[in-house]
Amino acid sequence: MSYDTVRDVDPAVADALEGERTRQNETLAMIASENHVSTAVLEAQSSELTNKYAEGYPGERYYGGCTYADKIEELAIERAKELWGAEHVNVQPHSGTQANMGVYLAMLDAGDKILSLELEHGGHLSHGHPANFTGKTYEVEQYQVDAETGYIDYDGLAEKAASFEPDIIVSGYSAYPRDIDWEAIQDVADDVGAYHLADIAHITGLVAAGVHSSPVGIADFVTGSTHKTIRAGRGGLIMCKEEYADKVDAAVFPGSQGGPLMHNVAGKAVGFGEALEPAFKEYAQQVVDNAKALADQLQEHGFSLVSDGTDNHLVLVDLRESHPDTTGKDAEEALEETGIVLNANTVPGETRSAFNPSGIRAGTPGLTTRGFDEEATREVADLIARVVENYDDEAVKTAVSERVAELTDEFSLYD
Ligand code: DSN
C-alpha cells in the first residue's frame, strides 16, 4: 500500500481539489443549502471507513468486520435522537432525496397520492416534480403559498387535501423563508387520513438548536439532509415514530440502497456531537439573526422579498419589482464574479424560466460559520445591492471583489 498524496499520483485532481479549497476560502458561500463543516467532520468523512461494507444495521450486518462501523452508526443514531428528540432514526440515507425515497417506499405503493408544495413556491424536486422519480411514480397534487403574503396558504392546502384525498402530505421546503405551522398541516393530514412527511433538510440545524419550531413528535416522518444547517457532512437521515421503524429501515436497506456510506455516517456522528455542544445553539441563533439582518438591509436597498422577510436562514428576493430587467441568472453570475456565491431561484408566480428565473436565494449558514455577525452581514447586503444594481459595470465589480477579499481574510475558513 502506498501512502502517496493525491498531488503525487494525480496532479489534475490535486489541482482541482486545491482550486476548490481556495474557492471556498476566498468566496462567500451564500447558497442557502450549503455550509462549511469542521475539520473534524472532514477527517471523519475521508477516513478508512470509505473501504468498509456494512450492509444491514448495527448488530445485524451482512458482512464481518463491522465492530467499528457499528460503534459509529450507533453513536450517530444516539446523538441524532438526542438532538431532535426522535423515537427512531435511520442515518444511512445518502442524501435528503434518498431519505424522502425511503419514506415513500416504506409507506406508499406506485400510483398513491402525494400532496406537496409547488417547486416554484419553495418545494423540492423529490416532493413530486414531474422530472423526478416521485412525479413519475406517484399521483401528485400541489399546494401553494398565498399570492399576497408569500406564506403557506394553509386553507388552500386543506381544500386541496379534502378534494384530492392524498395518501401523504409533504411539508418542509427548500426556498421558504418562514416558520412552518406543523400542527396545522398535521390537522389536515388527520382530517383526510394521510401520513405527514416533514422534510426539514434546510432547517435541520435550526430545529436541533430550538431556534425553529420542530415537527418531530407531530409529523409521522421527518427527513433531513446533514450537510446544511446542521453542518455534519453530506448525507441524509430519517426520523419516525417507533411504529414505522421497521418499514423505514427496510425501505432504506435493502429497499433502495446497498452498503451505507460509512465514512459519511462517521461525519454525521462527529457533526451531531458538535451540534450537541452549547456553542451550536449560539451558532444557529446567529444564523437566524444574520438572515434577518440580510433581509432588512436588502429591503433598505429597495429589494422586494418573498413574504417580506425571514424567520429562518434564507431570504428569497423577487427582482421583478425593483429590477424588472435583471434576471436571477444575471445577478447570480455578476455576484459570483465578485466572490459572492448564491443561486438564481424561481419565485412564486414565476414569469421567466427555472433556468433563468426572477429571483435570487441567499442564506447565512456559511457566513455565520465563518464568524459573521449582523453588522458584517449587513455589509454583505450592501455589496449584493451594489452588484445587482450595476451588474454589467466592471469597475463596481472589481471594487466589490476587493472588499470580499478583505472580508474572507478577516473571517477566515480552512487553513
Ligand atoms: N438542492 C438543494 C437546495 O439548494 O435547496 C436541496 O436539495
Report on the architecture of this protein.
The chain has helices at 6-9, 11-26, 39-45, 67-84, 96-107, 133-137, 154-164, 182-192, 204-208, 245-256, 262-275, 278-300, 319-322, 328-338, 365-370, 374-389, 394-410, and strands spanning 28-29, 56-57, 60-61, 88-90, 113-117, 139-143, 168-171, 195-199, 221-225, 236-240, 304-305, 314-318, 340-341, 343-345, 359-363. It has 415 residues and is of the alpha/beta class. The chain has two domains: 43-275, Type I PLP-dependent aspartate aminotransferase-like (Major domain) (Aspartate Aminotransferase, domain 2); 280-410, Aspartate Aminotransferase, domain 1 (Alpha-Beta Complex). A seven-stranded mixed beta sheet has the order 4-10-9-8-7-5-6, with helices on both faces. Strands 11-12-15-14 form a four-stranded antiparallel beta sheet. α3 runs antiparallel to α11. It is globular. The chain binds D-serine (DSN). D-serine is lined by residues 33, 96, 174.
